[in-house]
Specification:
- It is a single chain.
- The chain is α+β, with helices and mostly antiparallel strands.
- The chain has ten helices and 17 strands.
- The strands form four sheets. The protein has an eight-stranded mixed beta sheet, with helices on one face. A four-stranded antiparallel beta sheet has the order 12-13-11-14.
- A hairpin with a 4-residue loop joins strand 5 and strand 6.
- Helix 3 crosses helix 10 and helix 8 packs across helix 10.
- The longest helix has 21 residues.
């Protein structure tokens, strides 16, 4: 089975995660998918296969060299984003893409257009896998899973390619920031690893945002609006006052590259009580800390005007893995060389988001992130070029070969 056939099989599993269940995995579909993959790995006669009660699946492809070489891991996540339905995914292959609009769903007039998504033009002439416009595709990260398993299968079929022990792991709940929380690094037993969870072909990432979530709560007082003068305290209006106090240009829609932001992700409110939820992001640790302090400062300003109205709770989510990767930068160099050997031009970029690799790096497993090939993740316009999946598979094989050569 090739990487495309595997991917088309895997996206049939509905594995959306859900941060509200307080379970691991957060949804039953993830465990169902993990159990299916466990059966696949057993059929491949891999060693040390284990699936724990939290949905973490691990296995080993034994090395075929007598010398001692580092044990390297490859990791991908089981879940898809809760931002868009992953139920009854119905992918379609667009052959030899002509550079024009792709009608995803004619009845709903949903079109994947290079006018809105100019990156499409880079893949003219290639075969693309797209959605039917009603769900996401699931390339994030079922493409990564398909690529890892296909690469392992390729190494099994080509024993002339020398490699050390290769460990693979598939974990739940990456999309809700919990993928590494119960990941047993000691049991995984690797010198270092790579997550196959990046975007476009060539992407290689070892920097990510420092991240936190903030919940700001405003307590009001509701009375009859006809008799409200000097009595009513409208928490919605006060929350709106807070929102406009933040710099309007430091939001996701106005930032790029290394620029951080405040992102208002939800508002829930009434006159009596309103809650704002923000995510805070910055690559620079000092600026990240200053952003948190600014939210606390604005909360105090609100309370100066409306005593005891506002409260804030800030929780760090993950940190920039660069500080953990730089001391072992050779693992990034190996990935870059593997890309070149696979005919891919490396494009080292900072992640404007998070990755399981960041948390794993802070747990003692250095873990850069490599492209899986998909674009427009988390929505109906998600697509993946088939040659990108094939190249990602080849990169895994080349990393295994290079590590054995370097010893």
């Amino acid at each position: 089975m090739n990487v495309v056939d595997r991917f088309l099989q895997y996206v049939k599993f509905d594995t959306q995660s859900d941060e509200l269940t307080n379970m691991t995995p957060s949804t039953p579909g993830q465990m169902e998918f993990a159990q299916y993959l466990e059966s696949v790995l057993k059929s491949m006669n891999l060693r040390d296969i284990s699936l724990d009660e939290n949905g973490y699946l691990m296995a080993t492809l034994p090395g075929n060299v007598t010398e001692k070489v580092p044990t390297v891991g490859f990791i991908a996540h089981l879940d898809t984003s809760p931002d868009m339905s992953g139920h009854h995914v119905s992918p379609r292959i667009v052959k030899n893409y002509d550079g024009k609009d792709i009608v995803l769903n004619s009845a709903a007039r949903i079109v994947l257009s290079p006018e809105q998504f100019p990156e499409l033009t880079k893949y003219e002439g290639q075969d693309l896998i797209v959605t039917d416009g009603t769900t996401l595709l699931g390339a994030d990260d079922k493409a990564g899973i398909a690529e890892i398993i296909t690469a392992v299968d390729y190494l099994q079929q080509h024993p002339e390619i020398k490699h050390g022990d290769i460990r693979i792991a598939f974990n739940p709940d990456e999309e809700i920031g919990q993928g590494a929380h119960k990941f047993d690094v000691k049991r995984f037993g690797c010198d270092w690893a790579y997550t196959m969870d990046g975007g476009e072909i060539g992407e290689l990432e070892y920097e990510n945002f420092n991240a936190a979530v903030a919940k700001v709560t405003f307590i009001g007082r509701n009375v009859h609006p006809g008799y409200a003068k000097h009595k009513m305290i409208n928490s919605i209006r006060i929350a709106n006052q807070f929102v406009i106090m933040l710099p309007r240009w430091e939001t996701p829609e106005h930032t790029e590259d290394y620029e951080g932001f405040y992102h208002l992700v939800s508002i829930e409110g009434s006159v009596e009580k309103t809650v704002l939820t923000y995510i805070i992001r910055d690559h620079d640790r000092d600026r990240f800390e200053r952003r948190k302090k600014e939210l606390e400062h604005l909360t105090r300003k609100i309370n100066n005007e409306f005593p005891d109205c506002a409260s804030i709770e800030i929780k760090d989510q993950y940190y920039n893995m660069r500080e953990k990767i730089e001391p072992v930068k050779y693992i990034v160099d190996i990935a870059e060389q593997a890309m070149r050997d696979a005919g891919v031009t490396p494009h080292v970029v900072p992640i404007r988001g998070g990755t399981d690799g960041a948390q794993l790096s802070f747990k003692g497993l250095p873990c850069p992130n490599i492209f899986a090939g998909g674009l427009n993740f988390h929505g109906r316009y998600e697509f993946i070029p088939i040659p990108s999946m094939e190249k990602a598979t080849r990169v895994i094989v080349e990393i295994a070969r290079l590590v054995a050569q370097r010893r």
